[in-house]
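Bumping with the actual sequence this time:
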Amino acid sequence: MAADECLPMIAAIPSPPWNSISLGPFRLHLYGLMLALGVLAAYKIAEIRYAKQGRDPADIGRISVVVVVSGVIGARVYHLFTGYKWHQDGLLNSLAIWKGGLSIWGAVAGGVIGLVFMARRLHLDTFAVLDACGPAVVVAQAIGRWGNYFNQELFGKPTSLPWGLEIDPAHRPANYLTVRTFQPTFLYESLWCLLVFGAIVWAERRFRFRKGQAFALYVAMYTFGRVFFEWMRVDPASRIFGIRFNLLLSAVLCVAFSAWFVILGRRPESELAIAPSLAPPEAESESERAADGQV
């Protein structure tokens, strides 16, 4: 029995009836709206996190335009070289980012390049800015993934689970035309990103992070989950030895940044992400409390 025959209509996530809305003579693409909302959320969170380090939150505004633009450029360039259908969509559509096709790998890489450039130009602490922006970006990813829902793209394998995602026939892969419901990988990844953000915020309050550790933990945790999401997906993708390239990249980055997180944690106290005077009381070590006569 096919997956679409054994799943009642009520027990599924419905496919969106549209992916854009009309505002007079203008058409607003919901994919772009989700990305814009994600960027705004990331900007505000980064400001708050940077201020909690005892730094000037206005610095985030000074670098934001360059970081966002370089992130968008990186996201599109990466997609054009790894997943874009040149033979089908042609050169003209290569700039149509409102239709989808923005890779998170390229976005982070491009954004980091822009961030490092601006941090050095403005004489900012690069690790401090990365720590403020990394966890903020994962919230943007959580919001942005809903753009894939409205575009009915990047879904997973067929499923008969009650939360299976309905996909219209026009958006189904050729070998799954008779299947109605698929794994909602956009939802899994969105929830995972929120979990990553929550875990980082909790860990920062519980432990004494060194500079760069928050960013390293963001990359390590996100890519750990991405390995599984890539394994679920059925959309066309570049492959190496029959394995999706982004799955392999996720695994490599997860291991690399996990190791970097550990290495950064061995740096001296002078490299604390938050100045001791601003650290929460529970972050103090037992030896420090003993020295103060508290134990």
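The tokens above came from a reply further down the thread. The two ends are 67 Å apart (CA to CA).
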